[in-house]
Design goal:
This protein is mainly alpha-helical. It has one domain. Helix 1 packs antiparallel against helix 6. It is globular, with a radius of gyration of 14 Å.
Amino acid sequence: MRQKYLNHINYLLENPDQISDHWSEAAGLFQMARRNYICNAGCLTMIRTGEWNAQTPEWTDRIRRDTRIPYSTHELEELKGEKLEQTLIVFASYQNQLDDEFGEDRADLEVLNNLGVHNVREGNCEGNSISELQYSGVV
């Protein structure tokens, strides 16, 4: 799991009132499911609703079938504690896989920094409240 997503999860767990702002910026955990800004695609929640697609039909189908992805930021904001953490882990796992397939440069790290999620370029997971082991096989 990339450090930027671990940091973003930890930040949102500490600041759940910021979820909607971060979602509206389409950064980090809430990036669009696409290779770059040329492709007109939605984020995981937008794809789950059926209103938008991902970069490929395979990704679109996979995301739409995943019942762990909420249909809206309102649903996400209502989650608390462990349920919120587990849902954010699902988002992180998808974003990590999308980075693997489409390239990590699709992320706007500057937006994350502006939103208060710092140290997004660090390479290790030490000091995070979420164990790296929790991420294996999530998606």
